Model the fold of this input.
Amino acid sequence: MDFEGRDIVSIRDYNRVEVEHILEIAELMEPLTKSSSDMLKGKILANIFLEPSTRTRLSFEAAILRLGGSYISISEARVSAIEKGENLVDTIRVMENYVDIIILRHSLEGAARLAAEVAYIPIINAGSGAGEHPTQALLDLYTIKKEYGKIDGLNIAILGDLKYGRTTHSLAYALSLFKTTLYFVSPESLKMRGEVLEDVSKRVKVIETKDVPEIIPKIDVLYVTRMQKERFPDLEVYEKIKGTYRINRNSLRNAKRNMIVMHPLPRIDEIAPEVDQTPNSKYFKQVWYGLVTRMALLSLVLGAIK
Amino acid sequence: MDFEGRDIVSIRDYNRVEVEHILEIAELMEPLTKSSSDMLKGKILANIFLEPSTRTRLSFEAAILRLGGSYISISEARVSAIEKGENLVDTIRVMENYVDIIILRHSLEGAARLAAEVAYIPIINAGSGAGEHPTQALLDLYTIKKEYGKIDGLNIAILGDLKYGRTTHSLAYALSLFKTTLYFVSPESLKMRGEVLEDVSKRVKVIETKDVPEIIPKIDVLYVTRMQKERFPDLEVYEKIKGTYRINRNSLRNAKRNMIVMHPLPRIDEIAPEVDQTPNSKYFKQVWYGLVTRMALLSLVLGAIK
Amino acid sequence: MDFEGRDIVSIRDYNRVEVEHILEIAELMEPLTKSSSDMLKGKILANIFLEPSTRTRLSFEAAILRLGGSYISISEARVSAIEKGENLVDTIRVMENYVDIIILRHSLEGAARLAAEVAYIPIINAGSGAGEHPTQALLDLYTIKKEYGKIDGLNIAILGDLKYGRTTHSLAYALSLFKTTLYFVSPESLKMRGEVLEDVSKRVKVIETKDVPEIIPKIDVLYVTRMQKERFPDLEVYEKIKGTYRINRNSLRNAKRNMIVMHPLPRIDEIAPEVDQTPNSKYFKQVWYGLVTRMALLSLVLGAIK
Done:
């Protein structure tokens, strides 16, 4: 399978065989996080983050460094040429002269697709608007695969803001490549986007619900996401809902013994700190799985591995 | 010719033989942008950008990385010791303890000269006030040389804000080292600075004009620059002038077949996007020429090449 | 002596033998600032600077680069996940997945201690609140040792804001490990914190004074620090005091011939520029001693040297 030169814009551009190949390469990367590698020596990555995202930026920076490459970064719109009114297309056309691969974070849906069409070098979408976040979805798959040894056959709940949370959209698509049962758990006003629901339902069984306690005993994976205050016109409604969907030790009482709790981070208070100490919590380990997944993607797209 | 340890503060500090040598070294750098080099392994560059300039900063970062070195960066006045009131001289005296070369961008004319006088290590001026931007001028020369195989004998128009645009000042000086004919094209209120005009006129033929269509058929190079809205006391005047100096496909109708259009970027709307597809447009290729020119300067000044 | 894996949170965690060992290793690092080393090849350092401090951040970045390693940086609270409400503990738990060592600057006392308790990897405190700045204290010791060949037996004055200046607290503790006599020189309202005074007085002779001219002839080291305007409720008082404690050539008239003047930098106007040219001024050389001291700490804590 040859990934060299390919863009990673949407998880929907990849089939199950390709996704499984990426996860296998991620496994090969694990030992390299402790020793140093020269696999990507001489390769330069550019982070273009036109929307704040420290975590994802640092994850890609660490990934290229662990493989012996280096990076340059634009981490804010504010100080860049963008401010002088330059458009994204020009920015991409400039940057591709400097580096071997571009990681793009942008506040608008479609930005990564546009960039990929313009650029001669590979573009990796590190989150565009409320739409897609494919590398997050891949690292989520890798986490599940590592923790369960498989993805097929699992019951997976995605909880939180399913309307605006781009992580949840990419993840739902990614999980629908496997024989999973998906629970979409959210308040009425933040239900999963229609188009995602429709697409995913064609491939796997989907149950929409508002009820957390009811689904807890049934699931193998509880994927928690943030609900952003600013999505609620009525602050009182927000405060009430927030409490309902907050996960604490008590929420896990009826869970399967080895059920895992995931979160794309940062978390605010969707998961109580007391959950961190439980064997169920995997959200910090997920960060490390993210590093190796991104190392795999860089190695593949830059042609260092097949 | 020995450039080791020299500062690059003003294009006026260099004669034609030296400039031609830099352009020859730039040519040697071209293959290194694709493979990796260890020519500057162990060398550290400091970017001190006390005025925003993403493009130039990233260009220097990519240049040192392509040569196997590394960088540290202060990219904003806001978060630095500068804010606590430290002066430039102290900043330079501190930074020279950490690195092998300093790239300085500053909002005041004379800042780079002052830094060069203070520092034991080489200083490269990456733009100081409305005055100088020597590395931009050198990359502009390199672009012309690569596209035409020569600079002597060409008719070159510099268009836009010739009063405040530092790029245009350094470029005019640089071009006057060669047997060129220069057209300075601008509205009355943004005519070329008197001192630059005077100096340059001693060496080459200079024609000042407000008229774009008239000069188009005569020129080999059209160098377009931005006109900044804030330079115009009357916004209506700005809007009218902007239209007059905007380059589109129609503007190029009577141009020589192989006339090239250049721009230091970022552009706003001085050049219509439709020009990008013409064979005349060279402003994105100019970015790549900039990378190799800066690689040449770093190699020379750090003594890795003679 | 094995420093591998240890945190550097407070100078009080280290005894004299350990401190002397660090200073010996610093000496070994000196030649590596000019040539390149691969001692820390493959190691990644994370700067987490949640309070501005360009100088210290760049010093650590240069230190890891000089040893062949690399770095990633969060240099502002503003654009990070912190802004989305993430707490320090979560930030540390995420970052330790990416890197081999964390350098933390935080506005709150105790932050570094908390981070060290949470993290599996070593934490170096690069300044926390008004409390501690241990690497500054170590580089100050190294400067004195290099300039005098010893620390024992010296009379050392620390001048400025001894109440809020974290540098002065760590330095006082560090100096009390040696047979020194300490002069704490400050206006009444900025006298040395009670707890520091008490601890330090148990080990070395301490003289508190407001009078600069009186102590000048007696001392071997004059350590000047900034007095921050915002500490004074009355601006008139500030202006008056500032003048009294400002060091110029005249202040040094009665000093011992080889008395040295130090400053953690940045300075504002506590030391007149005319002092820079005197043989007494060592504050810029101190910056370079800081680089090698930090190289020593990184090598020790990352286990590259014993």
